[in-house]
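Weekly modeling sync, notes
Attendees: AB, CL, MP (scribe)

Item 1: holo prediction request
CL wants a bound-state model with iron/sulfur cluster before deciding which constructs to order. AB pointed out that an apo prediction alone won't tell us much about the pocket. Agreed to run with the ligand included and paste results into these notes for async review.

Input as submitted:
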Amino acid sequence: MKNLLDFTKEELSDIIKPAFRAKQIYEWIYKKNVDSFDDMRNLPRDLRDYLKENFYFNPLKKVKEEVSQDGSKKYLFMLKDGKTIESVLLPMKGDEFDENGKLIKHARYTICVSSQVGCKMGCSFCLTAKGGFVRNLTPGEIVEQVHFIKKENKIPYERRVNIVYMGMGEPLNNLNNLAKAIKIFTDNDGLAISPRRQTVSTSGLSSQIVKLGNLNLGVLLAISLHAVNDELRQELMPVNKAYNIASIMEAVRKFPIDMRKRVMFEYLMMDGVNDSIKDAKTLVKLLDGIKAKVNLIYFNPHEGSIYKRPKPENMEKFRDFLQSKSVTCTIRESKGIDISAACGQLKERSKNDNS
Ligand code: SF4
């Protein structure tokens, strides 16, 4: 049996004739959210039987859901082979009403998806890294995380969401499947999510950043930088041995990006490790000539972590320094701090609950 969601519409139309059936199947799944092939009423019975015998389109089973006080929802999903992954729904802004109570702006959501089961990159601050790498997710397993969460939370089809490839795994280590997932997401008969709403976040695989850029998919890029010198970055992120900071910056400078958008640099701040003004000065130099936005993120300590949450005043000084040098910078409160929103934590806890 094959996962129907692994197929782009073009691939499906090569298998299922006449070709317009592929469009109909896409609409039933992504727009009408049906649960079974029998519900695809405009397909002939023999086609439905053929699909039933050869395909499935429900690759995820919800195992656990945790809701944070800030409204973030974290999902633990089980895949067909029993492996588990995490995804997070982050409400960015609630519905907005005018003084008469009339809805003037709909709520905005971001969905953080996983791209692999486990991860090879071994970042020292990350729980996912502890379990090592298991396997790549297929395109359909990536796509279904967003589809499932939209459905589950009754987010209407027309309400576009932002997608960040920032969950478990290094998306650029799974570039072929990622690229296919991006195409499926973007399809107008599918979820119709513009590539400009999709941000690929990488630990800094410079050669893969170049390859992603060459694919010209139109997605946005985020770099998990976290340190401004190779020595510290290597300690935090072993990938830096193969791809140092200079190589990342070079790849970023070549990356095709919408003129109105910026490359995001994620900077996980840890008390006394990377939060000094000296670090801020180096960061400004590194970003010279790049249309960048820096996100300073509070480190969310987990059990056994050697790093600590930074002091708010140091975060603010760091941000103010960057802004004084005309670098766009925001402080991001770790959403879902009470549900351990750093990737891998729900999975880790669930294992403990079961033991
Ligand atoms: S932080 Fe991301 S890239 Fe690093 S080990 Fe964790 S999942 Fe992998």
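Recorded for review: Residues 119, 121-123, 126, 128-129, 168-170, 203, 343 surround iron/sulfur cluster (CB under 6 Å).
Action items: CL to compare against the apo run; MP to circulate these notes.
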